[in-house]
Amino acid sequence: MPKVVVEMGALQVKRLGHGTVKKPGGKNEVGAPCTALHAVGGVSGLYLYCRPPGENQISGARSWILRTMVGARRIDLGLGGFPEVTLAQARDKAREIKEKIRFEGYDPIAARRAARSALIAEQTRQKTFEDVARAYYQKKCFEFSGAQAKKQSRRLEQYLFEYCGPVIGKLLMADLEARHVIQVIEPIWFTRHSTAERIRAVIETVCDLVEGEGILKNNRNPARWKNNLDRHLPKPETVHTEEHQPTVGYKNLPRFWDLLLARDTIPAKALAFQILTAARPGEVRLTPSCLVRKTGAHRRQGCLASATPAEWCDFRESSGALPILGFAILCLLVGAIMVNSHFVLKLSLAFGRVLSKIIGLVAFSDV
């Protein structure tokens, strides 16, 4: 017959505590504190689990455990801590669970796992557009590199939090629909179409991040253009006509070159330098002359090798040598290496705008 446990009262349970090691041979010495499991009676399998006190503690933690059979498996089910859960409450909980196991085939462990899984899934569905956009923004800021990284980060921040934020920032991803995306981009769809299209693409990318989680309504990206937004907004080609910058035809190139060399200005000479070296405006601007290597080997190779660090130019991305007409000819042509000058080309930050004006004046006024 099973052992009958005497039903304890509340005062007796309150006095229960951890035990001590009785037999030698274990990890702890005899008399050392150890955990104890006390049967309190009233409901079979109901125990008070007592732990030894930790450092700077007077007494250890105590909690209720129901030890029972579920099918062919024995489980230990926690019912809460003591004294937060009283003796009477623990007995009531234990009786209720044992009755459900016996008459309904209830599995408390499986039920808890299902409830926890449902809670996690619901928390995932509570993500707002701003939550996902913030994570995407941080990821892209880490990936941006080069001289334009700061500018790219600022532009993405503007798209996500200045254009999208006020309209859909607080909206749950599960509630986001095509009509909300239209509310963001429609005000500028006709006046600033390129910006509107980039914003739409950014929203689509943010939604793609959670598309596999089953959060989006009907599992469809609300910012997708084909068979979605194209039904509500005019086609891009009917709204925006792309205009290319004018170019110099190859037949007019010799005349353009003569007119360019005839202009005795630093920006004009810098443009000539760019044409010969295929350099970018940011690469030509403010290159310290002390960092340009002018060794005999470079002169013999007929090239200019740049030793300029990253903060000055991007020549470091090249193979290390730029084929040109020869170092001496280049110096005579550009005329920018002054005797007392610290920089190869002393240009302002508006260098790009100056070059555009030169190209326009030379190519399309004089040719």
TrEMBL record:
Keywords: DNA integration, DNA-binding, Membrane, Transmembrane, Transmembrane helix. One of its GO terms (biological process) is DNA integration. Residues 44-115 form the Integrase DNA-binding domain. Residues 129-227 form the Phage integrase central domain. GO terms for molecular function: DNA binding. The keyword Membrane applies. It comes from the Bacteria. PANTHER family: PROPHAGE INTEGRASE (PTHR30629), PROPHAGE INTEGRASE INTS-RELATED (PTHR30629:SF2). This is DUF4102 domain-containing protein. It comes from Marinobacter orientalis.
